Protein 1
Amino acid sequence: MSERIVELEVLRFNPETDSEPRFQRYSVPCMNEWVVLDALNHVKEAIDPTLSYRWSCHMAVCGSCGMMINGEPKLACKAFLREYEGVIRVEPLAHFPIQRDLVTVIDDFVTKLKRVKPYLIPKEDKLVEAGEFKQSPAELKRYKQYTLCINCMLCYAACPEYGLVPKFIGPAAISLAHRYNEDSRDGGREERQQEIASNEGVWECSFVGACSEVCPEHVDPAGALQQVKIKSTVDWYQEHLLPGSKK
Amino acid sequence: MSAHGKPYVREVSRYGWFFRSPRYLRYMAREVTCVFIGLHALLLIVALMRLSDGREAWEGFLVNLTSPAGVVLQLLILAFAVYHSTSWFNVTPKAMPVLIGENFLPGAVIIGAHYAGWVVASVAVLFLAGVF
């Protein structure tokens, strides 16, 4: 249990008094096994109680503590201090407006998530007495990877397209739409296509691939988006070359 | 949006954003090298035009093509075209996952299939050109 002093440079912004953000330096006595979130908690408890940031589970499940650490989108609970040297710069997630300190305004993502209907829309209504909707292991495998998304929004902070074109629905929301489209029990693809196959959907993506590189759950949103592009292209050809054929 | 003051919006620069991270630079390298694919297409079109202009024009074109500048240009085009193509091959498993039974085909197999296709196509072109 060794201890060292870690220098944190944290972006601060108080919307009531500040016109723009500024960096504040904290010297934090840290244990070797601490993550950045532990250091922030120490600052909040022992140095500066006014520091604001979101966190909850401390185990990479809730997706609340996403922030830029030395310019990289990371979960603060998964960023071990021992992997950093020198001053560690902590900023709110890129591409989102800053509410206060490290807290961002995430309304845009939540609205987009709702638009893609990330829930099962059964193909047909079935009474509970009729039993469960069965699924084979292979059918589960098709989409399971995309169920691991924790809505942490690191992919939005990594995506240069989203930074430049904020109307882009973005990696996580489209990946979740793809997750339900690929589910054998689901019949909602037509509804979701109206959102994700539009100009604001997959066609805004130019396959930078940064979303997949920063994803803490290895969801591979970049893969999901390319697959949606291919399927949407097949739709287009079916519609124009084989009119009358059912998708 | 908030009862506690106006949120601060950080502007994203339209220019130079790709210098922020090596992964953005890798992306730009993949995208920009497509220019050399276009250059090669242009070279082929010029070759066809010279060919249609008659024997003299065609032979003049060949002289230019085999001059030091012509060779350097073609080597540059080849290097960047290979980089462009292989960088796309390497991301194909993401776009085209193949589920066999309950397992996805390993990415290396999908990438390998693209390289194999490339070799077959190259051999076919060389065969048509009378190299063998």
Note: Residues 36 and 42 of chain B are 10 Å apart (CA to CA).
Protein 2
Amino acid sequence: MRTFRMGGVHPEENKISNDAAIEVMPVGKQMVVLMNQHLGAPATPVVQKGDKVKVGQLIGEAQTFMCANVHSPVSGTVLKVDTCKDAFGLSKPAVYITVEGDEWMETIDRTPDIKRECTLEPKEIVAKLKEMGIVGLGGATFPTHIKYSIPEGKKAEYLIVNAAECEPYLTSDYRVMMEHAEEVCIGVSILRKALGVPNAYIGIESNKPLAIAKMQEMAKGFEGIIIEPLKVKYPQGAEKQLINAVTGRKVPSGKLPIDVGCVVSNLGSCFAVYEAIQKNKPLIENILTVTGKELPSQHNYVVRIGTTYNEIISHSIGQLPETTGKVISGGTMMGKAVVNLDAPTVKGNSSVLVIGEKEARRAEETNCIRCGKCMHACPMGLEPYLFSALVKNNKVEEAKAHNILDCIECGCCFFSCPANKPLTDEIRLGKNKVRAMMAAKK
Amino acid sequence: MTHDILIAVLILGALGVLFAVVLYIVAQKFKVVEDPLIDEVAEVLPGANCGGCGKAGCRAFAEACVAQGNMEGLRCAPGGDAVAAKVAELLGCAVAQGEPQVAVVRCNPANCGEKRKSNYDGLRSCAFQATVYTGEGGCPFGCLGCGDCVAACQFDAIHMGANGVPVVDEEKCTACGACAKACPRRIIELRPKGKMNRRVYVSCVNKEKGAEARKSCGNACIGCGKCEKACPFDAVHVTDNVAYIDPTKCKSCRKCVVECPTGAIHDVNFPAPAKKPEAPKPAPEKLEVPVAEKVEVKQ
Amino acid sequence: MNLLNISGSPHVHSDESTKKIMWRVNLALVPALLCAIAYFGLNALLVSLVSVASCVLFQWLIEKFILKQKSTISDGSAIVTGLLLAFNVPATAQMLWIVIIGALVAIGIGKMSFGGLGKNPFNPALVGRVFLLISFPVQMTTWPAVGGLFPMSLDVTTGATPLGILKEEGMAGMPQAWDLFLGHVGGSLGEVSAIAILIGAFYLLCRKVITWHIPVAFIGTAFIFSGILWLINPEQYLDPLSSILAGGIMLGACFMATDMVTSPMAKSGQLIFGFGCGLLTIVIRNWGAYPEGVSFAILIMNSVVPLLNRWCKPKRFAV
């Protein structure tokens, strides 16, 4: 079985919501749609107070390069164009919509039929991805149309679909594979066509045997889709590690996957691509896991973007348990802790993960005993303990010389540290300092 | 016997001569010619290497002074006028004058300590916490309370206060500006010390709109503009929903202090009774510490 | 409801802790301790108890009254130091007070003066041991003869270590390798039985507290180097098997050289470190003034660790 070469850890998998079928979350009374739901500059609102909008209507336009369109997830009247506090309490530009009915744009194909044929040319596919506001749903929310616009002089040879879902707890990709295997395969074929590569590899961790079997069965009906079972090891789904596992190639420091002829997309994105290209449906929904050991029930939902965390919680489990210590958007290894539960969800949110008080608190930090576990766990072959000391003493130049910018922030170092040192935090801080220093030099 | 002694003496003697020659050659070859003036200038500097001048340390500052030949644009804040005069004398140029300044912390959170809204459990660093979320108090512009400024201070002049916000020790503060640079939220500002150490400033940098700012913190500046209207000297201006008092125009009349509905404007080191009677109307529920009390903490 | 906790990712931890590691090491030292009690009787137990108790006490006193910080004695590292120190001295009644001085030096100078666990450049137990060896050469080399199982007499009957015999009398008096393996020979408290030490080391390997690199490099180098010498002149030099079984090589390679704090982090560095330890041990044994060289070899290599950490970097991704 394939895997990446160095480092990695194996946290408890906790895929307790595996068997919960995807349910549809009802729409609330008011929706708040943030304008920056993606990596890059916020979209520019193109609606005004009082405007009537339909489901799927463009409300935020990408006017700069690194940006993605935002569409209305509901129908109704624009209440105001203002700011809204996001999940971390920071103000972001947003459009408030009062929900009235559920009227969809006429262009959107809402029939359950599966449409396999795609006659669009590669350029048209990319243009449509841009129009539909598709972003990478693996967490980084990188605008997909930029990723698939291969720069001059570079050539894609591999399309790799990340279905590893190596994060503990998350099961949304798994559910999509189980319930929408055909759509996913069509989406992958479309992306394969957009890139003009012969083969697409779908990497799935071997702890999902049912999904592997299902996808293998489905892939038989498609040309050039290869299912690649991967060893259960975190961070199997990290871009560089996945490329290494599937192709054996290594993306050098400071380079992009396309420099070694690879393009990596998340499985959820492939499903979104299918809906966008074949059904004309913009990215207005997330498939999201509501899970946690403390919760009475486990769920997987399809949720309109803009639904607040509180709405999701009250619909699925009523209220947070008394013992809640942390609410995380994403998995336990790379997810972000949420502070503002009144915040709307955004593109790329893959879970509402509730962690109990006891597990949520970090243990007290003690002296580094130079055991080197962080170093051996690092999938990039870096020295986290060293960065910790360098960052503390503000030795930014030296940290850069030791390739701190190569860090992918997977969290393996903190995970394995017996002294409970917040190594990943320190490295992030160090990376920020290095970037600030480099910017100052320019 | 004598033979042995002779050999030992000769060998050691020869080695001694050899090393002396090597040392001499090396010393000549790697000689660094340096202006002795640099040493003299470095001598009169405080030697704390605080970096407040923007140079890597006191010696780097001395080198810059000597290289430039005058003190234009160069100032050692900790040393103040006394050091400036000494350096200028050594350089033989005019004295660079500057008004004495002090670091001012412009945050007065109502949501810290017992009233915090979340529990930060990560790396104790403001710079990092600022990249994670708003902070325990819930104000996206407020003090994060991890003490990056305290760590940055070379003069032991800033410490975390009881309400989770740092307090500047005016006696020790040299206005080097290290704390201001260290603060990721840019809360700390260098302001003129003022006559008899009395000064008036807006203790908030929240740029949110009034209602939002109020939600973030009971003591926030809500940008209402009352202070702007009250000021007879055109010293107060509201930009981006937050008031700022221009220290060069402020005459410390304290009319704005009385007007402020949230108690965001602070006056320090004024005799206490003066403001007791007209203490600002208590701002609704969230403002739990009256302004007068806070100022006393500072003294 | 409680306040929500906020931190950067990751939000989960492997549950590994310094405390767990130290207690595993303590557990791994138990077989060797039992062996020592079996061979040397009550004295072995008493010396170990005094050593451990004084190490813990000194650490507590220093943290409480000198450093004025929270006590860290519960992490078990002082107990490791105490046990290892006891393992490195003869199990005689007169050691009961000498080992207290050793504990003070080990904890006070060897560990706490550098800032406590994790900051000491030298293995504290070895610092204590070498201090005692230099300060009390007679007492430190007065070995009790090995009794039967559980000897009741507390009298000191002087025996000699295999390496001592070698230095004094030459090859003639050497015990057989099999006795060395089981530990039926004179020597320091914990070093006599290779098999007991290997059991402990095997446990540590399984629990991933140590890796194979240092012990294998250490013992392997000692084996090969002494083997070369033996092939050159079997009359003068000890055969390689006895070389690695006699003296403190097993204890040193498995428990002291592998001390995380004072050994290199990268695997390549660990191999070099083990190689240096093995080489120096044999050199000191054969050409030095002392019959045994493991302590000195490890301490010398400890001093090289910062350099090894600088030179031996892990292999970076895609380089």
Note: Residues 101-298 of chain B form one domain.
Protein 3
Amino acid sequence: MNNIAGSNIIRFIILLLVQVVICNHINFFGYVNPYIYIIFIFLFPIREERLILLIVSFMLGLLVDVFSDSGGVHAAAAVSLAYIRPVLLKSSYGMLYEHQSIKFNSTDIGSLITYISLGTVIHHFIMFSLETFNITHILLVLKKTLFSSIFTIILSVLIIILFSRKRK
Amino acid sequence: MQQILNFVIKNKTFLLFLLLFSIALGLTIQSHSYHRSKFINSANALTGGVYGTVNSVDQYFHLKTENELLAEENKRLREQLLIREASLDSSFVDTTYAEGRYKITIAQVFKNSYSLPNNYLTLNKGKNDSIKQDFGVINSNGIIGIIDNTSKNYSTVLSILNRRSRINAKIKSSNHIGSLTWNGESPIYVQLEDVSQFAPIKVGDTIQTGGESTIFPKGIGIGTIDSFETDISGDTYIIEVKLFNDMTNLGTVYILENLDRAEILSLENDGNE
């Protein structure tokens, strides 16, 4: 139990720092940035209380907001992602979720990619909509969501696979 | 009472989500109005510390370009000095230098952003260096933005690459004024709006600050005219301005304090009453 809490706290800090120090300044093609801090929400222990996940996600999002001067857009998107996470898990892992026996580093890659892709697209869409905050720029929002999502999904899946293998 | 409690306990996840989401939404809406991003901004000890550490490493990679910029500026200042000395010799006094009094503070950019719709910079000077809201920020190439929030040792700058930024500017060759805005698309171009149809406009003309605001002195460079089109209403031009400054690469900047600002503002307020 303590071990899990400790590794989550370390993951929280590392992902936050990597996000604000490196990933926020990549600006691929001028505007495409990956938002890898949501890996924390994806990998949060499933058996843990949902309320804790909501609060921790909110704090994570808010800290990213503080670093990037963006009001509350990351907090809002992160909380939404944390709230709908059970639905995503159920739709991509099916029965495994019902039995509460998912281990992210051992299940098949297909389910993992579905799970991360769905979550990332939803998170990015909420975030960019709030960031632009203008219904007439909906095309810009969709364009940003698409490109940033591709970037985030590839990076997230790579990071999760790489680090889970090492830990074993 | 029992039922209300039961309802709360049954839906506690949803209610907590709703609460947190509305807090975040509130902060977002607040940040979309000018000068209201009071709570969530990067002018605090935590973010300043992290960005400061990163910046001290990052600086080494930009030493060369930074040196070139400074050398160039030195050259220009020396030229101005020579011209001034020459004009003093011929007993001709150039009065434009006496127009406003400005105090200059040198600062380092700790965080720069240019890819969002609303961009802010973080500088390493704050209240302890008597930096306040609404001071102008420039570098050797031209204007950068206006101080938005300050903490003890840090301050955030509302960049000209921000959709809430509106800065008074004029065409150098004539005296026609407009307001400088940004449409959120390219960090190389900004837009000069509300320029009268009477203004003679040529592609390549210089745009500079107008001196009508109390923030920037007159004649700070902004950019050159790249293209222009008539507004939908047909009365004004919208000019596409190519910036002198490379907003994606900023190191040392100057913060300008107008020492006459309080006097001018109180005078204008008296007039309004």
Note: The domain at 2-167 of chain A is CATH 1.10.1760 (Arp2/3 complex 21 kDa subunit ARPC3).
